Amino acid sequence: MSRTLDLHWPELAAPYAAALREAVALILDRFEVWGIVAAGTPLTGNPDRASDLDIQVIHARPQRQRLQRWCSGVPVEIFVNPPEMIRRYFADERERPCTAQMLAAGVVILDRHPVVAELCAEARTWLATPPNLTPAQLTARRYGAADAYENAQDIQARDPANARLILHEAVGRMIDYAFLSANRPLPRAKTSLAALAELNPALGQLARDYYLASSPARSFALAAAIATQTIHTSGFFEWESPLEEVSA
What we know:
The structure is a single chain. The protein is α+β, with helices and mostly antiparallel strands. It has two domains: 16-127, Beta Polymerase, domain 2 (2-Layer Sandwich); 135-230, Four Helix Bundle (Hemerythrin (Met), subunit A) (Up-down Bundle). Helices cover 51% and strands 14% of the residues. The protein has a five-stranded mixed sheet with strand order 3-4-2-1-5. Helix 4 (98-105) crosses helix 5 (114-127), helix 8 packs antiparallel against helix 9 and helix 9 packs antiparallel against helix 10. The protein is globular, with a radius of gyration of 22 Å.
């Protein structure tokens, strides 16, 4: 029996349909596959000019590999993993559940083993599970944002370019903290500001204004407002991490 008979192709516009078929052919030539799940905005949303295809390949071997390929002019990212590795990603990516999003929202192209459906169901469960950071973990994230913000302010006068570089890092950490302190997972990069506006419309508008600011003074003023709404400090504050046992 032809190994292509159990493939299920979604309806895709050009050039994504040809790209997906080319990528799957490459995968089947190189791996003994249990399952293939395709994701990315060409399948699940409105693709942008440079949108890629993300493909999760499930196989039995205790090996993992990442492949980056151009297929029919489309960038394709291929992630090859055994089931136990995918489950480890689910657990490790609780703050930003990239693998769970791929398997929960993706399209099953090939299903040759019960573990494929099991992993997709587990992915949906993980997506519905909040990050549940501990108070100590949240405090550490808050301090990381505050420290970066203070560093940016420290060098604003003597090195404005480097100050803005650090300020961008600080504001990014503040935005991450806004999600995590609300017990929400971090969204995909391309939807960060839309997700922030959904979480907190006023904060979402401040962030959008910050990234469009045309002057250093405006950037720092908006960063101060974002800090007030998220980390509630402008720099160093006292805190302690939990006492941990360490092995020799």
